[in-house]
TrEMBL record:
It holds the Pfam family EFG_IV. PANTHER family: 116 KDA U5 SMALL NUCLEAR RIBONUCLEOPROTEIN COMPONENT, TRANSLATION ELONGATION FACTOR-RELATED. GO terms for cellular component: cytosol; U2-type catalytic step 2 spliceosome; U4/U6 x U5 tri-snRNP complex. Its main location: nucleus. One of its GO terms (molecular function) is U5 snRNA binding. Residues 392-513 form the Translation elongation factor EFG/EF2 domain. It is found in: Nucleus. It comes from the Eukaryota. This is SNU114 homolog.
Amino acid sequence: AGGWSFTLRSFAQLYCDVHGVAVPVDDFAARLWGDMYYNEATRGFRKKMPPGGGERTFVQFILEPLYKIYTQCVGEHQKSVEKVLAEFGVYLKPSAYHLDVKPFTKLACKEIFGTATGLVDMMVKHLPSSRGGATDKVEHNYTGPLDTELGDSMKRCDAAAPFVANVLKLYPKPDCTSFDSFARILAGTVRVGDRVRVLGEGYSPDDEEDCSVKEITNLWIYQARHRIPVQSARAGSWVLIEGIDQSISKTATLVPEFYEEDVHIFRPLQFNTKSVIKIATEPLNPPDLPKMVDGLRSINKSYPLVVTKVEESGEHTIMGTGEIMLDSVMKDLRELYSDVEVKVADPVVSFCETVVETSSLKCFAETLNKRNKLTMIAEPLDKGLAEEIEAGAVDIDWPRKKLGDYFQSKYDWDLLAARSIWAFGPDKQGPNVLLDDTLPSEVDKGLLNAVRDSIGQGFQWGAREGPLCDEPIRNVKFKILDAQLAPEPMLRGGGQLIPTARRVVYSAFLLATPRLMEPVYAVEVQTPADCMASIYTVLSKRRGHVTADLPKPGTPIYLLKAFLPAVESFGFETDLRYHTQGQAFCTSYFDHWSIVPGDPLDRSIVLRPLEPAPVQHLAREFMVKTRRRKGMNEDVSINQFFDDPMLLELARQDADLQAIL
């Protein structure tokens, strides 16, 4: 906005030019930052403050001259301004001194420091070139092996190799009917008219369903608001591609149409925050539903963090990171992508389901043909492990020995359990673990490994949709304790074992003291000191708690940090400004998951309409309301997840307990 910028080196060069001093510019620039002081007596730079005191070199040589220039420009005294500018060898036309303060200051600084090239200068100096940074990018983002011809060509950024590109963002056309794909070319050369295979986020060499062939109809070099059309682009370039967007939802990998070597995809984008706020939408006029659905598909393409989904109840939901983001999404949906009137339900949050104890007994489930039986228990996962799995610090695809050593050394698992991990779920980086805790003397390991995929799919299904209110399970370890399997392959197929594995996951979960988890925001509030009491009051009413309040050095402002449950965040900013007369400003972002107070399965709790529930009843209230919204029964039916023999075992144990009491 100012039209000018500077770097330490440009300031050092300016001093050398103005004063005619012949010193190494880079050495001088290095001494203009950090705890460095200029000693006028010795005419040298030292890390210790001179005996008479003094300012750091950044303040003395950069900040104070800047303050002086701004003060003179704002003071509007022409003679003094001319004198200061003359020190820098700058002479303005007489008409320039008749400008208003802001444009005059901008012009003066531009003449002294030059145009705004500081950011680009820093990028050129500190960021690696396309070829220099190719190895790190490929190792970090490519999911396949790198010791292949394709991996080697990407690391070399070889323009003569087969074409490979990674699509990272979709930009809408002016009419919003289609998108152009912004991609980085990792290897090869692409030309207008080339036919390429578009590999989606669900593609793998074993499952090629998420794959399509498209023709590139146009290429541009994208520079800010300008598009420069080109006929071809080489490895290392960022390009905008037309004609391939139909099969892309978020990101994609592009390779030639005919390529014999196995190709893996680049990792989807990962973010530090999560989409935990959800709204349901429906068109005001029911016949406009197809238009709204098309608009939701476009929204899903346009916003990397937005997730659109159709619930089992039939409602179309949009998930985003916060209220302001969802307001922007709805504005685009109504005005750009669907051009229909859309009704929006009140925002709600996504929950997770977890356990706080080990299953009270060994849970088992039989297949429908009564020839297979799985036994399992559930228990809480080690603290911090779920976050490490989600962050990619541990990978299920590691060799068994490496995976076992990681869990054995960091979480003190025994060797057998550490090397018997079957899966993370849901998906490859899900915050739950399935492990085989059976003994070779009790279970036929050959048969068990033969049905490993089926049990894993049942575990993934169960972890994706928990039994409490169809929300994902989190932070739970499921142990397979026993497996009685039919020797005939036909009797232990996926159709028999997948639903059974899901059922035993649910029964083990429900007997391990299940709880709901809610997303929690980290909130940072900037406020004057006299508004602190009001902010504490607003936070306490919304189950928030302050973690730190620190004065901002050199200002009358305090920086207050707090945690606030996302479900309590709706209208928080408005409430905050009302109670502080607009003097406080806040930012919030997802920080962690926290267990909701209370037992969601406690049927003795009576929920009264239009009355706020006590804190210990919140888990029950959230579960019931979520189930109602999804069109489910208000309570969890154990008959749905427990086999008759399991129910009899529960009744027998309950009778034994009553006899003891």
